[in-house]
Amino acid sequence: MLPQDLSRNRGSQRSTIIRNRSLERAKDSDDTEYIMWSLRDNHIKASSCTIVLCGPETFKRKFVDWEIDATLDKEHGLIGVQLPTCTINNLGRALVPGRLYDNIESGYAVWIAWQALVQGGPDFLRAQIEIANTKLKSLIRNGRQKMGRCMPSLSSIFQNPPGWLS
Questions:
Q1: Are the C-beta atoms of 36 and 67 separated by less than 8 Å?
Q2: Do the domain assignments include residue 74?
Q3: For the whole model, what pTM was predicted?
Q4: Which carries the bigger pLDDT value, residue 107 or residue 22?
Q5: Per the structure, how many domains does the chain have?
Q6: Which domain, by its residues, includes 116?
Q7: Does the structure show a pLDDT above 80 at 157?
Q8: 33 belongs to a structural domain
């Protein structure tokens, strides 16, 4: 279970490291432009870095793809976290959203394992966010077409395949 906020007490001060600003599963609109505006102005704008938790179904989720797209448009930091439940192929590679894969491969996004995050705690996460936020913006790769549905058809998988990370 992931808490809404991951906080750390500093004496009498409490500092928030992570705030859950992900898009709700159901929006009251089928208007793609409205949803993208909501993502950019209500979710991504207020953050410095997006953290993508990669589990077994993450690569199929259109809103995850859209949040990554909006993050890259704003040139914010991007971190992928390999959860213990992430799909791994027989070569030991993790299946991740295609847009995240492109940016890990380009050197823009940071890729870490859940276990490293758990062991390192808030200070480790804070350091990873700082690293992500200082990456060269010229490394951003955001040329993929946005996903149109959560369960991609076979043809869309072959046109825009998700990525396998080692």
A1: no
A2: yes
A3: 0.73
A4: 107
A5: 1
A6: 54-160
A7: no
A8: no
In a domain, 115, yes or no: yes
Mean pLDDT of 96-109: 96
Residue 23: pLDDT over 70:
no
Asked if residue 19 is part of any domain, the answer here is: no
Q: Where are the alpha helices (DSSP H) in the chain?
A: 32-38, 62-73, 98-106, 114-133, 154-159
Does position 94 have pLDDT exceeding 50, yes or no? yes
> Which residue do the tokens 């600003």 mark?
21
Long-range contacts of the stretch 131-137 (C-beta < 8 A, 24+): 132/49, 132/77, 132/78, 132/79, 133/48, 133/49, 133/76, 133/77, 135/77, 135/107, 135/108, 135/109, 135/110, 136/107, 136/108, 137/75
**Euclidean distance between CA atoms 117 and 84, whole angstroms:** 12
Pick from 124, 110, 105, 4: which is nearest to 49 by CA?
A: 110
pLDDT surpassing 80 at residue 109: yes
